[in-house]
Amino acid sequence: MTRQITLLWLLSTLLLFAVSPKELLGSWQYQRKFADSDEQHSESEKLTFAPGSFHLILSVTIRKGDDHRIERLRIRADGLWKLRKETLVLVIEQIRFLDVAATHGIDKNSLTQLIRDLRGRYLSDPIRILDLISVHAGRLRLDTQEGTKEYRRF
Questions:
Q1: Per-residue DSSP letter, 105
Q2: CB within 8 Å of 58: residues ≥ 6 apart
Q3: CA-CA distance, 79 to 147, in Å (whole number)?
Q4: Beta carbons within 10 angstroms of residue 133's beta carbon
Q5: Cβ-contact 90, 77 below 8 angstroms
Q6: Domain ranges of the chain
Q7: Phi then psi dihedrals of residue 66, to 5 deg
Q8: CATH numeric code, 20-153
Q9: pLDDT tens across 98-136, in order?
Q10: ∠ CA 153-45-67, rounded to 5°
Q11: Is the whole-model pTM more than 0.85?
């Protein structure tokens, strides 16, 4: 009897966690804010899954004191994705700078370097293997190189 209960519990746990790729389709958003000395950073990732392909838009705002700021600098990454059990594989094929809403007190060289650095996040590691922790109630939790990220469906 104990063996049957254990087997049923194990089977139900596995079935509850089984994720269909269809559950990922659509748009998800992750946001984080942090401060570093006198700088304030705000980042937003909008991740959209279509069958077999995805795009991610990274939006960054940086403020340093009252005199320097970059508002909504956006970079887009496009590629392919595949879900295998609890492993999500993203292959980034293209990265491009979209736009920046506004700058104040930032020279062109600094802005160009920031764009290179942000693009470099994706160019340096174009194949991302992520552990899918859970998908439920409009939330997608992934274990990434930067730690656990929780995306919300929008």
A1: S
A2: 43, 44, 45, 74, 75, 76, 77, 118, 121
A3: 22
A4: 15
A5: no
A6: 20-153
A7: -95, -10
A8: 2.40.128.280
A9: 999 999 999 999 999 999 999 998 889 899 999 999 999
A10: 135
A11: no
